[in-house]
Amino acid sequence: MASVLAVTPASAQVSSEEKPEAETSPTPSKSPSPKPKASPKKKKSTAKKTPTPAKKKKGKPSSGKKKSKASPTPSPRKSPSPKPVSPSEAPITPSPTPLATLTPVPTVRPAISPGSIPQVEVEKSGFLGDQGYEPPPSPTPRRGWWFWSRPEVTYRYLSRSVRNEIDRAPVMRRRWQFIVVHNSGTRQGSARIFDYYHRHVRRMKNGLAYHFVIGNGTSTGDGQIEVGDRWRRQINGGHVHSDYLNNIALGICLVGDFNRGQPTRRQLEACEELISYLRKRCGKIDAHYAVVRPHREVNPPQWATDCPGDAFPYSWFRRFQE
Known about the structure:
Shape: globular
Radius of gyration: 56 Å
Low-confidence stretches: 1-29, 37-48, 54-71, 107-130
């Protein structure tokens, strides 16, 4: 009996030992078994992850939609509802006030602009198209052998070369309406000297400001007439302080300072011959020849001048009145 009892505890011990082995064995052996099971779980987790971002993406626009829905809901958009109120529309009523601008525009256009524009167009067409150029004068007739033949026209100061230069220039009809007489303000000078002064000192692009220069016997002969480049080219002068007058007025400069003394007799005679010849060369304008005036009577009042000097004999201009 004792032996049986002794065996029994051993078996019991074995069984007890086997039991812990059975308890310990599943834990390490079965622990790797869940690891392969984790792999499908990961696949499931990946499958689950794929819908989750899609749901998040769907959730984002839903939130934006909610925000967009929230934006119209606030009361500030309901505030424009009082816009139909009369005070908001009240400023629209003064906007038709531009009717005041409409009323003067039609009144001015029919009254002033249509009347003035045709006049300007007619003047331009007559000046450029219909009138053309002034024909050069016929050559001076020579004295015949018979006593009844017309005597030859003689010029004392207008030499043949000067007349040829005057005739050679292409003078347009109705271009030169005034002839202005100046003094140089210097005791001596010539066209060449004045051209250098105007071109390099006064910085005038076209040089000599006058169309003609008449000497006093110092730098050139007394009463000698010199033709300027502005006449040859038929361009505007630079002798009057007005662009408009420079475009329609010829300038004749007598060398000398006529605040201190008078021009010489030959200067006045040469100037008279030159003016008479130029008036015929330029032709008539509205049934009269070009008007002859001293510089002081033509210059604008804001640019007053005493040219051609206080000692100049202004009664000399009466002989050119018609």
